[in-house]
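Give me the fold.
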Amino acid sequence: MFTGIVADLGHVKRLRRGEILELTIATGFDPAAIPIGASIACSGACLSVVAVEPGAFSAQVSAETLACTTIGQWREGTPVNLERALRLGDEMGGHLVLGHVDGVARIIERRPEAQSVRFAFEAPAVLMPFIAPKGSAALDGVSLTINEVAGFRFGVNIVPHTLARTNFGDARPGQAMNLEVDMIARYVARLLAAREGGVTG
């Protein structure tokens, strides 16, 4: 479980492709404080640590995760938003984020707005019912408030602090980002579908 408050902007240090993809991500996190098996949100995708080294950790990526995320497009040097798993008693600064990416949204517009930057995204049609004005969503692991929704598009506003601390600073139109819809919206939709279909368990 995460909150969508990015703690470090790391980058891909190495990739080893085989039957399973193994990523090594450079980070400012103290490797001595990262146990094997720890969960770290990597641009929104929850990955389990399989090895640590000075200034970096490694994680393996399943075929399912590759199919649902942008990770298959990552290369050495790709910036990665990082967040350690939420611990009981930690401040809840964003919203509840599972690290289970639902799909990929694409930036269609970036424009300055006062001292912030407004981004417009296009998302898969199947995910749009879960996205509502003033609701929450995580984009590349960043907890954001939805400003407006129209058709298959939605907008968010990125403040200077977030631009400086995440990969949004260099994000441009055409770029894909991992999208996780709000967990509450997901379960409400499931309950409504079950009720309409007569499913009780």
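Helices lie at 63-68, 160-165, 183-197.
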